[in-house]
Design a protein that fits this description.
With 203 residues, this protein is of the alpha/beta class. It contains six helices and eight strands; from the N terminus they run E-H-H-E-H-E-E-E-E-E-H-E-H-H. The chain has a five-stranded mixed β-barrel with strand order 3-7-6-4-8, surrounded by four helices. About 4% of the residues have low confidence.
Length: 203
């Protein structure tokens, strides 16, 4: 599908997430796929390098695995509609100035809030209510895209639920859920391409 020279950036935090991406996605010249490393600083550097080397990028998708805080279960596909900073001062949360909305992709996924913090959680420090997930990168990518006027979407597979067994769940389930992740990324790339093509035809 022609995208009128617009490109889509895809970021995954780890190599094992990258290795689950289908070859046809990696070979697509309209896509820039990168492994950022874990955490907000590494993913910010990745975003910056991606935009500098490919200034025609119009949309960045962050994908991979996430933890569940409330209302979600292992194997769920979640799409962040709000992302929020989770590391602030001594772990407290500024709930007014550190919230950003994410662009929605028209796929079958549970909309939820995503908290981002640079630590692997084994308990819920946020007293979460509603459908809530956690990762280490979403807020940073959302902030970057907001600053540079890019569309941003985050879609993730829940690999673990925060608690005493979350580390073991993560290790066990990321391999088991690789097929789910592979299908997910194929679906959402097709949907974003349709959106971009629709926008181009309407202009």
């Amino acid at each position: 599908m022609e995208l009128d020279n617009k490109m889509i950036g895809i970021i995954v935090p780890t190599k094992f997430e990258y290795d689950a991406i289908p070859k046809e996605i990696l070979d697509d010249k309209s896509l820039i796929v990168a492994t950022s490393g874990i955490g907000k600083i590494r993913v910010l550097i990745c975003c910056y390098e991606m935009l500098i080397s490919h200034p025609s990028i119009s949309h960045i998708i962050l994908t991979g695995y996430a933890g569940g805080l409330n209302g979600v279960k292992i194997g769920d596909i979640v799409q962040g509609n709000v992302v929020e900073e989770g590391d602030y001062e001594d772990g407290g949360l500024d709930a007014t100035s550190h919230i950003l909305e994410a662009d929605q992709i028209g796929i079958k996924a549970m909309p939820c809030k995503i908290y981002s913090q640079d630590t692997f959680l084994t308990r819920d420090p946020y007293d979460s209510a509603g459908d809530v997930a956690t990762d280490m990168e979403s807020y940073a990518v959302a902030l970057f895209c907001d600053r540079y006027d890019l569309k941003f979407s985050v879609v993730k597979v829940i690999s673990d639920v925060v608690g005493d067994n979350s580390v073991k769940q993560f290790v066990d389930n990321t391999n088991l859920l690789s097929g789910t992740f592979s299908s997910l990324i194929t679906e959402m790339i097709a949907e974003v391409k349709r959106e971009i093509s629709k926008e181009a035809n309407s202009n």
